[in-house]
């Protein structure tokens, strides 16, 4: 293997300037997300989410963004998972979208608020049935002795709910991430990247500033 310290490339696809910014960050995020979709990126809605446990230890994992608006960003998960356990004791969260081939990143800092049971049920019922069954079969984040045990549990759920709709598990929910900071990063030549931070003031208005790369 060659020295990983020598792995580098120029970023030259595009730039980001003040004239490209929108009054609030959600319109720009929507534009960038659509660009990622149009570019046929693999999993354009994939985002890394970071939480912190009771000891202060950060933890990260990748989930899919399922909705967003000026209210915030939505994802769903098992409410007994590691991330949900972290959020119960510390609702602060960070999201990160790495659109590498577009030489773009978006970082979001905010708090995660539980969605209502009505919102959760509406989304759960829209999922493909195998995904619904997998939610029932998996005690997310808990140890399992083998893949076979998981597959047997999945088969049991498939048989149990073979007829009719799959009910919403009591341990399955979602979160609305309400942001107070959103950073847009566009790669630049010679590592002179363009970075703009949107920060929400106490008056609810968004201010922007350019950051050094």
Describe the protein in words:
It contains 5 helices and 9 strands, in the order αββββαββαααβββ. With 213 residues, it is of the alpha+beta class. It has one domain (11-126, 170-211): Pnp Oxidase, Chain A (Roll). A hairpin with a 4-residue loop joins strand 5 (92-99) and strand 6 (104-114). The longest helix is centred in the first third of the chain and has 14 residues, at 25-38.
Total number of helices? 5
User: H/E element string?
Assistant: HEEEEHEEHHHEEE
Average of per-residue pLDDT values: 96
CATH architecture verdict: Roll
Percent helix range: 25-40%
What integer value in Å does the Rg equal? 20 Å
CATH topology: Pnp Oxidase, Chain A
Total count of domains:
1
Tell me the distance between the termini: 29 Å
**Low-pLDDT sequence parts:** none
CATH-assigned homologous superfamily:
Electron Transport, Fmn-binding Protein, Chain A
Instruction: State the secondary-structure class.
Output: alpha+beta
By DSSP, the count of extended strands is 9
- Classify the beta-strand content into a percent band: 25-35%
- Provide the CATH top-level class: Mainly Beta
Largest sheet: 9 strands, antiparallel
Binding site for FMN: 61-66, 76-77, 82-83, 105, 140-141, 185, 195
GO molecular function, one term: pyridoxamine phosphate oxidase activity
Protein name: Pyridoxine/pyridoxamine 5'-phosphate oxidase
Subunit structure: Homodimer.
